[in-house]
Automatic annotation (TrEMBL):
GO molecular function, one term: RNA binding
Keywords: Coiled coil, Nucleus, RNA-binding, Transcription, Transcription regulation
Name of the featured protein: SPOC domain-containing protein
Major localization class: nucleus
Taxonomic superkingdom: Eukaryota
Subcellular location as annotated: Nucleus
Residues in coiled coil: none
Species of the source: Trichoplax adhaerens (Trichoplax reptans)
Domain SPOC: start-end pairs: 1-148
InterPro entries according to UniProt: SPOC-like_C_dom_sf, SPOC_C, SPOC_met
């Protein structure tokens, strides 16, 4: 992962489940990654990124996401990996990510959606899509980070 900078570490939340992850920039705009995710820092504390909606993994939806990913300055592709202070914590977070996030999204055949509002506003500034392993995410992973 040396080639891919760490841009965020914090908590992902889905319903009542949480997992601690680190997000690495695979391609696209590092500025978008840091700006959008830093919005979740208040008083030095990082607020959880809460998955509040789902997007079906349908051709038309995926086509819209792909269109947004054509200009490297207008998107970022991140890889979220579980993290922990020690081996036991890593195992716990890996299990939580697989059981509560990946399995759920795969079962629903959906991506999770996180709407990030701009500071001091109700306006959505960024939309973060959380994809489980699927044809769409695997294709983009192979294209942009074939060494992973």
């Amino acid at each position: 992962l040396q080639r891919y900078p760490l841009v965020w570490q914090g908590v992902l939340m889905l319903k009542n489940d949480t997992v601690v992850v680190q997000m690495y920039l695979l391609c696209g705009s590092k500025a978008i990654a840091t700006e959008s995710l830093s919005v979740h820092c208040k008083d030095g504390k990082i607020s959880p990124l809460k998955i509040a909606q789902r997007m079906k993994l349908e051709a038309s939806q995926l086509e819209n996401v792909s269109k947004r990913m054509q200009n490297d300055k207008e998107f970022c592709l991140l890889l979220a990996l579980p993290c922990g202070r020690d081996f036991t914590e890593m195992q716990k977070q890996t299990h939580a990510l697989q059981a509560s996030f990946v399995s759920y999204l795969q079962q629903k055949e959906a991506a999770g959606i996180i709407n990030i509002t701009l500071p001091g506003s109700e306006k959505i500034g960024y939309v973060l899509h959380i994809f489980p392993p699927c044809d769409f995410s695997n294709c983009h992973l192979m294209k942009n980070a074939p060494d992973l």
